[in-house]
Batch of 2 targets.
Target 1
Amino acid sequence: MLKRKDVVKADSLFRIGGNAATGPWGPALLALALLLIPMAAATAQESGGRGQQMEFIRDAEIEHIIRGYAQPIFHAAGVDPDAVDIILVQEDVINAFVAGGQNMFIYTGLLQECDNPEQLVGVMAHETGHIAGGHLIRGRDAMDNASAEALLATLLGVGAAIASHQPGAAATVITGGTGMAENNLLAFSRTQEGSADAAGMRFLDSAHITAQGFHDFLQKLAGQELLPANRQVAYTRTHPLTQDRIDAVADHLQASPWKTAMLGPAANEQFQRLKAKLIGFIHPALALRRYAPGDPSIIARYARAIALYRQGNLTEALPQLDALIAQEPKNPFFYELKGQVLMENQRVAESLAPYRRSVELLPDSGLLRGALAQALLEAGDPRLIDEALRQLQFATRQERNSPFLWRLVATGWGRKSNDGMVAYALAEEAVAKGDRAMARSESERAERMLPAGSPGWLRAQDIRAIVDAH
Ligand SMILES: [Zn+2]
């Protein structure tokens, strides 16, 4: 995966600004296990004049874990898991909300605040209650409707852009996403909160998961409501917290046959690794303080290996990573991390083996295949291009709207001097970015150059038809 440094300014909804995905292919754009997508800062009037930037994380392991927890909840709620986008916002803020129908935003600060997976699952069950109830996040009373609408549209824009898991979605947004949710501007109503709680607890019961985590999480946040406003937890503002709510959850818990049904040690281990990974990536120095060098647990060693690599200390990071791999030779994410560390440090040829292994171990992950494909292309060996294109064919099926992956496809075909397919891939990239003009010109170019009736030619026709229809 990759990190985008571009901060794109967009001055209207759904308009693409800048060229986030067309920048130079330098090492700065190379893979990071965490994909950080800075969102548009822009004017940010709504967020109190502060420049705001929303960053999204894509990470195969973290998404795998969170989706695994969410699965039984979605199932209990009768919600199609594939229709819900879980969007990770990289910010040290305790918040989570749903917007734009089925987009569930979870902040990394909330993940860090949860002590165990039961707390996170409780929060997700509540959010799923909002989804199942069709609740719309709304502006606070103090705001005029027009602003509330605009803010909601902004969130919808974010959601729509990310809906299909795309790095370059960055470009589609818009003002002040983060500040809105933090600054009290958007909230669910108290009635909606009660109903989302009730639904969430029902889902937990049918999934045979205790609501204890949800109760503990609310209780913990309640204790923080006495803090000064600027330090208050954003979550309690998007989801107004009352003693009544906590009492209702406590009552339900007492009566529930699943009161003590925890997710189990394996789920807990996963969750602690998820937290370790986030801290290692986002706050390496803190990770090195929090996880002691002598701690033999995989959690601690994982956090430290990531933190050391993030600090550029490969001498220590790589042996630690190798030791982790030796201990868990079937863990795809350890190999992925090793591939990433090597690739980012100009050891691309060496990164191929671990990347390939990660894909073997978790073949369903479009993110892992995309990372491998990038390494194959970076290796600069013409014999590897076909393999890269094969991986990308799979990856783009799953991550259809990732401009970054389509750009890799274009790069691969470019190396094979197939200008028609380059044009086709650039047209797909433009679609993913919402760049209508480019989608039209590249699809027309592809149609001219590709053999009539070939798959690329047909798809280019489809793209032009879609563009014309809008
Ligand atoms: Zn809520």
Target 2
Amino acid sequence: MNAQSLTADSVAITADLDQTLIFSPRASARLGGGLPCNPVEHIDGVVISEIAQTVSEHIDLLPPRVFLIPATTRTVDQLNRLQLPFAYQYAIAANGGVVLVDGFPDSSWDAEVQRRVTAAAPLNAAHALLTQRADRPWLLRSYRAAELFCYAIVDPTELDANELPELDEACAQIGWRARPQGRKLYLLPNGLAKEAAVTFLLEKLCAQSGQRPRHFAAGDAEVDRAMLGIADIGWVPAGSPLALAGDLPPQVRVTDAGGHSGAAQIVGEWVTECIADERH
Ligand SMILES: [Mg+2]
């Protein structure tokens, strides 16, 4: 992909990363769809995440008028740890809590986020809901993220059917919500949402070009659902929590296979859709 340039026919693609475009070796083994891939993240010399070579190659084919915008629950530090095979002008991190423009947080969005979460209890109150449960077998460790939200590393096999609704209810009473995502359980304040940051960015692009860009989105988890709902076309990988939960809006496509093969199909269809667009 060449340097991005904003035109009247620009396309904004807001794409979740983990379990949508990139996968840990452990997730790949579980989801299938293995393809030749390259590492994009190491910790202490160990490969944590990979991207399929064909995904990188298809991203290279996207025309410059396409803005590929990572939209992740990762914090900025966790996002910056990735060595992605493409450059991006805009990114959404911390589940919508941060909008990066050329690598720097957009201060007007920071102020808007603070305004949006004022109705929710402070982070300490939500984190206490996790620390109070530190003795439960499913709760392995808990963390605070970017002073915006918190999450736990969980053992999903120990998480019985009552625990999650009970925790979600406790969260609801303080203006928060609990959202599981594989081995992570996120506690998010109401108002902190990827789709809010996506809408902010689309409006920013619209203000610059005079026209709302076409919007594609891809994601695998419940935190991505509303972002897919506002997209012109959305993609969900087969075998993902969203594909299994179903009830997806009509513009959302589920891939044929999961894992890296699902990612390859998603990115291949981005290229096809953008080229079809050029012929109209
Ligand atoms: Mg994901």
